[in-house]
Specification:
The chain is mostly beta strands. It has one helix and eleven strands.
């Protein structure tokens, strides 16, 4: 089980109609496979004006059982979204689980519970790694999203120290790369291109509102 914290802000110019424009992904935990979508990720395209926590339930990488949102939170632009999550990583739909606190308020998922049990790892894969940055379907508007303060720990208290727990477990290693430590990252998708600027982060500076 891991705890995560991050801050994401959508620029005031960010389109509020991505459900019409096409898929758009901002934060994700991607499997250690080049096939398939991330088992857990934040999307801006499920419902216009909302940011959605989406599950890609797969029997093996790229073999989909179901794709669905477990919660849609309002997406006010120009405002910092401080997100805290607890994720139990498992290939089992009963052992895996997610809990969520945006801006310090624990959320109730679509199942009516504050805990959503679902596989958070994909059978046939071993681990996940975290990536943040705008990744979207080719479309015309420019999308600008700011990311900062990513941190991870084995317990909730570890998110609030001078430094969060070092990312020594495989799911925290982004293809062996660690960049942007203690720094903000900005991603933009422009024109008809699919653009993603990855911010690979294993620790961050002091916790709290950073954007």
């Amino acid at each position: 089980m891991r705890w995560y914290g991050c801050s994401t802000k959508f620029d005031p110019t960010f389109p509020q109609n991505h459900a019409d424009l096409g898929w758009a992904l901002t934060n994700q935990w991607h499997a250690d496979s080049n096939t398939g979508s991330p088992p857990v990720g934040w999307y801006a395209d499920v419902k216009n004006g909302y940011w959605s926590l989406v599950i890609h339930q797969q029997s093996s990488p790229g073999v989909y059982l179901k794709t669905f949102s477990i919660i849609d939170v309002p997406l006010p632009v120009g405002t910092c979204h401080d997100v805290k999550m607890q994720i139990k990583w498992s290939k089992s739909d009963t052992a895996g689980s997610i809990k969520l606190w945006p801006n310090g308020v624990q959320q109730t998922f679509v199942n009516g519970s504050t805990t959503y049990n679902i596989r958070t790892l994909i059978p046939g894969s071993t681990t996940v790694y975290y990536k943040e940055g705008m990744y979207r379907q080719a479309t015309t508007p420019t999308d600008i999203v700011y990311h900062t303060g990513f941190r991870t720990a084995t317990d909730e208290g570890g998110l609030y120290g001078r430094w969060s727990a070092a990312a020594t477990e495989p799911e925290e290693i982004a293809e062996g790369k660690a960049r942007g430590i203690g720094r903000a990252a900005e991603s933009a998708a422009v024109g008809h291109q699919d653009v993603m600027l990855h911010s690979y982060v294993v620790a961050s500076w002091q916790a709290g509102r950073n954007c």
